[in-house]
Amino acid sequence: MRAAAAAQMRRSADGTPPPSPEAEPRARPLKALKDLAGLVMRSRAPGLKWRLFAAFGLTLAGKIAGVTAPLLLGAAVNRLAAGQAAGVQVGAAFAGMALGWALIRFLSGAAPQARDAIITPVAQAAQTRAASETFAHALSLSMDFHQSKRTGSLSRVIDRGARSMEFLLRALVFNLAPTVIELFIAAGVLAAKYDWRFAAVAVATVVVYVILTFAVSDWRIAHRRALNEADQEAAGRAVDALINYETVKTFGAESRAVANYDTALNAYAAAQITATNSLTLLNAVQSAVMSLGLAVMAVMAGYEASAGRMGPGDVTAAVLIMINLYAPLNILGFAYREIRQSFIDMEAMLDLRRQAPDVAEAADAQGLPPAPNGQGGEVVFDLVSFRHGARSEGLTEVSFRAMPGTTVALVGPSGAGKTTLVRLALRLIDPQSGRVTIDGVDLRQLKMAALRRAVALVPQDVALFNDTLEVNIAFGRPDSSPAEVAAAAEAAELSSFIEGLPDGMATKVGERGLKLSGGERQRVGLARALLADPRVLILDEATSALDSRTEAAIQDTLRRARKGRTTLVVAHRLSTIADADEILVLKKGRIVERGAHEALLAAGGEYATLWKRQTRGR
């Protein structure tokens, strides 16, 4: 448990995955099986059809062989018992039948192994297809969806949903369902070969076994849930303390963190004892039912043999048929829990796939016309309104035009709508009324790939991938050469910093780039945007984390970068946008002033008030 408690994805001792922190969807088995069949059929697995036919054929052949083998051994024993005076001939016949029984028994055991080898490419292809499609769909969903969803939970939904498909395919389609077929075959053979009462005992025993297994498993759900919650609590305390180790050390709280972890481990140990005891009870109930069924079958067969209606080999055959029938049921308790959880996991994945993206590419989407004379794109907001569901205010009929090659600055207090304008320009959200265009094309009619090539963003908080500096800079244009990456880094004032690193461009930046300072991350983000060479460059507080000297150097770089492209700048420090061609002052979602820096100061309005507030005391 000590190792498992520190893991992000854990399973309890009986194999049950911990419940999702999100509300679990209601499992709909028939719908899930239909969706499973659809995913399998479009999995594009090599030799899909013949593999499915072969797998079903081998499964059925294995079940038939499993029922037939005991009959052959029984006949061999009967021959041996009936012909003791015949000597060598009886021994040869018995040996032949015994070898035949061994061969058929081998085939009944080998058939599932061959089936697994044949069906594994299909199961893996279906799992890969489901995960890939769901991941792509999740990336297509709106920002509102991702902002309201736990990233870890979303990742688990995709992972568990994809893995549940393989388990359902193996356990339900190729294990438990064929066992039902085997039960009917066995019942038919017992009734035809011996007596209907033997078939009745076999069916009744299996039915009672299944009912009791399901009942005890349902009763154990509360124990397993308590175990999983205790496991999650222990892991959460450990991970939380390790992530925040600086805070723990700063306040000298190591002993307190260890004590909290130890308390959680003790709670897990108590829950583990309860879960183990209930599992022991389940196993005991299952064993009792199996043993009782075998005893009744053996007594009935012995009575029939003593009456001369059955031979000793028939007794052996009847008991072996029952034992073979029970073998797949040994995992029924585990399989029942896992199948039910798999249905829930698959339904969660399918619910995610049913989420419709708020921003989707139109069926008749078009590309962008060539940029005139390489002067960047023309960005137009035409009576754009948007209100976020979580805010009381939004944008109201905002209109402005950023001419090609010009710089337009957006200023105003927090909550005025600047970030919403940036998201609209990137088409991360769509306006609820009005339209946004680039070079005359409504963004809703523009191909997403064309839009992403035309617009680049340098955000205030640059998130980097846990990879090298070179990979992070080249993310804006993956096909760029090392020389182009180096040039972009130099333009973003990163060259001296990179040269001082032992591994240079091959330096790993850590998760979300946390090995770098805020200013270094911003310069990497700027280099990435410059390498993308967009028509429209959006700078959202792109120098807020820089010191004064570096900011001055970056501002010079930005002035050079803005030449030949249209630039939208979001800024709180007004001194950084004083040279903008036009400044838009937003307040409560409306443009209250617009103009150049000097003209706005002379007007003595909102901009002048902000300027005086920031320059007071200089």
Number of helices: 20
**What integer is the average pLDDT?**
76
Could you name the CATH topology of the largest domain? Rossmann fold
| Global outline | elongated
User: Secondary-structure element order, as H and E?
Assistant: HHHHHHHHHHHEEEHEEHEHHHHEHEEEHH
**How many strands appear in the DSSP assignment?**
10
Distance between the termini: 61 Å
Identify the CATH architecture of the largest domain.
Answer: 3-Layer(aba) Sandwich
Strand content: 5-15%
Compute the CA-based radius of gyration: 35 Å
Q: Briefly, what CATH class of the largest domain?
A: Alpha Beta
Indicate the percent of residues in helices: 55-70%
**Unreliable residue stretches:** 1-24, 85-89
At the fourth level of CATH, the homologous superfamily of the largest domain is: P-loop containing nucleotide triphosphate hydrolases
- Strand order in the sheet with the most strands: 6-7-8-3-9-10
